[in-house]
Amino acid sequence: MRVGRNKGIAALFKSMGIFPQKRLGQHFLKDTLVSQAIVAACELENDDVVIEIGAGLGVLTLPLCGKARKVFAIELDEGIAQILRERILPKDAKNVEVIREDALDFDFHDTHRRYGKKLKAVGNLPYSISTPILFKLIESRDALSLAVLMFQKEVSDRIVAKPGNKSYGILSVISQYFAKAESIMVVGPGAFYPQPEVNSAVVRLRFGISRTVVAEDETLFTAVVKAAFGKRRKILRNALTYGLHLSLKEVNNVLNVSGIDGKRRAETLSVEEFVRLSNILKEIGLPIQR
Predict the structure, then answer these.
(1) How many domains does the chain have?
(2) Is the pLDDT reported for residue 154 higher than 70?
(3) Looking at the predicted structure, is the pLDDT value of residue 130 above 70?
(4) Is the same domain home to 160 and 260?
(5) DSSP one-letter string for 80-149
(6) Which of 27, 34, 88, 265 is deepest in the core (most CB within 10 A)?
(7) pLDDT of residue 9
């Protein structure tokens, strides 16, 4: 059974006695035009291995399996995973493996090693765990070449925001350092069942990009970013003093060496300036609580 916009995803759910679980943040994509655009954004080649996060009823799984070498369709809900295996996927879809698992536990590196090629991730992410999933992918970036993900629009705005924008924050800096982030499309509530109360948006992340400025200690870089934004109303000097547990004198020294005005606020700093701060901290060798 194929599920699309014209098949009535709501009727299918009700006929099987399955209802979206609010605790899992389930909003199932039903618009096949949107799913086609998402698959196109994956830039698939016939030898690609794809990790689909939150497979649902296969609106993305079906077009993916026709274009990729292998699709791992991850679905946490056992009832939904069973329907996908037994009722939706055609019997000749031998390249699809439905996995009943929390995507946060999936081993991207092991799959990369087994197939010998960097993976592509795609998914309509449950709102409740979209940020943890994003950080999981960033942590697994050495195993990935690309990710195309649906977020709540507010989250996608934060991912692609530039300095000076009110949405610019930790998510922006971390995402844009470790990947090239770009907004692909905005998706209205009517594309989902049940309908969310807000718009969604698709973001594409390209991993493995070359950078002109490189953080010498990525853990320290992340700690500096989190400290700077930890107290958004504080000027940078005070936020770093508080967040990194350093003295004001130590922070002033770092800022002077970096050439960054301590009276600025975190949301005005570029990704490159955060890298410069973390590299100077590492060079000076101050003890940082991470």
Answers:
(1) 2
(2) yes
(3) yes
(4) no
(5) HHHHIIIIIS-TT-TTEEEE-S-GGG--HHHHHHHHTS-EEEEEE--GGGHHHHHHHHHHTGGGEEEEEE
(6) 27
(7) 66
Other residues' Cβ atoms within 10 Å of the Cβ of residue 212 = 6
Cα 194 to its chain centre, rounded Å, is 22
Which tokens in the block code for residue 37?
């655009």
Task: Give the chain's mean pLDDT.
Answer: 92
- Position 132: which residue type? P
Q: Kindly state whether residue 270 falls inside one of the protein's structural domains.
A: yes
The single-letter code of the amino acid at 58 is G
Where does a domain end: 161, 178, 207?
Answer: 207
Under the banding of pLDDT at 50, 70 and 90, the label for residue 14 is confident
Residue of 108, 99, 102, 157 whose CA lies nearest to 132? 102
269 inside domain: yes
For 31-61, how does the pLDDT look when each residue is reduced to its tens digit (9 = 90+)? Answer: 999 999 999 999 999 999 999 999 998 999 9
70-74 and 49-53 strand pairing: parallel
Taking the model in full, what pTM does it have?
Answer: 0.92
The tokens describing 289, both together, are 């609580």
Domain of 118 in residue numbering reads as: 9-207
Tokens of 63: 């077009």
pLDDT of residue 3: 39
